[in-house]
Sequence to fold (64 residues):
Amino acid sequence: MVREHGWQLPAHTFQVVAIIVYCLLVVAFFAFFAPFLRRNIWEYALVAGYSPVVCNFVLFIHIT
Fold:
């Protein structure tokens, strides 16, 4: 069977695992790592650098 698009069911196992891991890494960064940077320049720099990852995920969903 040929897929018409990436979201056509049934989803491939690797596709599901990749999306779950990606979401867990984003949540882990913003929930656990960033708050412990003590509100110094590193926190702002890392959050600013890591925020495009969230935009990348939105684009991943749109493009797929």
Notes: The chain has a mean pLDDT of 76.
